[in-house]
Specification:
The chain crosses the membrane at residues 26-43, 49-71, 97-115, 121-139, 146-165, 177-199, 220-237, 243-260, 281-302. Pfam families: UbiA (PF01040). Pathway: Porphyrin-containing compound metabolism; heme O biosynthesis; heme O from protoheme: step 1/1. The protein is mainly α. The protein folds into 2 domains: 13-169, UbiA prenyltransferase (Tetracycline Repressor, domain 2); 170-310. The chain has 15 helices and no strands. Helix 4 packs antiparallel against helix 5. The termini are far apart.
């Protein structure tokens, strides 16, 4: 993307514009899952170290968002959902966004290494690279599998949090990774079903654009089914327990039911009710992820009282 493409400065950037550049809604999910990775790890951690680790993981996630917005400004201006972002809205120059993202990336990785360990910092650096380069610059505009492979970037935070505390990777951190990784495609494909015109106009090869909505509906059901073993299976590890299992079974039953309803619908039905079911499943998928990680946290909180875990 060139610095002049899709950009005309209309107003001076405010502090809020730079915050928006960090994708705060996405960052909230990153912060929460990274925090869970830190707090459910099987070693004691000083509160200051925990807060420091979470802060720099969040900063790295924000840096990824800024770099993504810099690269995608030319298509963001086309899409209704993203046209109000700081660069296409003419509030921040692309060069400023690039410099901001690179500076934050360096700060986040170096400070996480100093505060915790090299493994956690290395995972954070790889996550930033994967989201900004592998996903944004390559996968997003070249393959309908963009969100499948690219979903790894959003799945790393709990693993980074776990590594920051333990200095390693374990079955538990891999399962937290897989929970987010397998959840990402049906979550975004549900969105793509009712936002398809945006992706089509911008030339982004989402599955709905390249293979049609019927194929996308099939994929949502298949990936939701494939998600269940990872989500429920985590309940039988050291970070799970009876409470988590109960929550997970209920949430997965609900997600499967929603995916089944999406699979059964045709476009005439969906357009007639303005994609109500798809929108409901998309919103439920957000609740699904937050409640799973909330249940991990609840199990960890109950363990000192002999109530959580196995």
């Amino acid at each position: 993307m060139s610095d002049t493409q899709a950009y005309t400065q209309d107003t001076e950037a405010s502090f809020g514009d730079y915050v928006a550049l960090l994708k705060p809604r996405v960052m909230s999910l990153v912060v929460f899952t990274a925090m869970v990775g830190v707090l459910v790890a099987p070693v004691p951690v000083h509160p200051f170290l925990a807060m420091t680790a979470i802060l720099f993981i969040a900063l790295g996630a924000g840096a990824s968002g800024a770099l993504n917005m810099w690269w995608d400004a030319d298509i963001d201006v086309i899409m209704k959902r993203t046209a109000g972002r700081p660069i296409p809205a003419g509030k921040i120059h692309p060069r400023e966004a690039l410099g901001f993202g690179l500076a934050l990336s360096g700060i986040a990785v170096v400070m996480l290494a100093l505060a915790t360990n090299l493994l956690a910092a290395g995972l954070l650096a790889f996550t930033i690279f994967f989201y900004a380069v592998v996903y944004s610059m390559w996968l997003k505009r070249s393959t309908p599998q963009n969100i499948v492979i690219g979903g790894a970037a959003g799945a790393f935070p709990p693993m980074i949090g776990w590594a920051a505390v333990t200095g390693g990777v374990s079955v538990e951190s891999v399962l937290m990774f897989m929970l987010i990784f397998m959840w990402t495609p049906p979550h975004f494909w549900a969105l793509a079903l009712f936002m398809n015109s945006d992706y089509s106009k911008a030339g982004v090869p989402m599955l709905t654009v390249t293979h049609g909505k019927k194929v996308t509906r099939n994929h949502i059901l298949v990936y939701t089914i494939a998600l269940v073993p990872f989500a429920v299976g985590a309940g039988f590890t050291s970070i799970g327990g009876p409470l988590y299992l109960a929550v997970s079974v209920l949430l997965n039953a609900g997600f499967l039911w929603g995916a089944w309803k999406i699979w059964r619908r045709d476009e005439v039905q969906a357009e007639a009710d303005k994609y109500t079911v798809e929108k409901q499943v998309f919103k439920f998928s957000l609740l699904y992820l937050f409640l799973h990680f909330g249940a991990f946290l609840a199990e960890a909180a109950l363990k000192p009282y002999g109530l959580g875990g196995w």
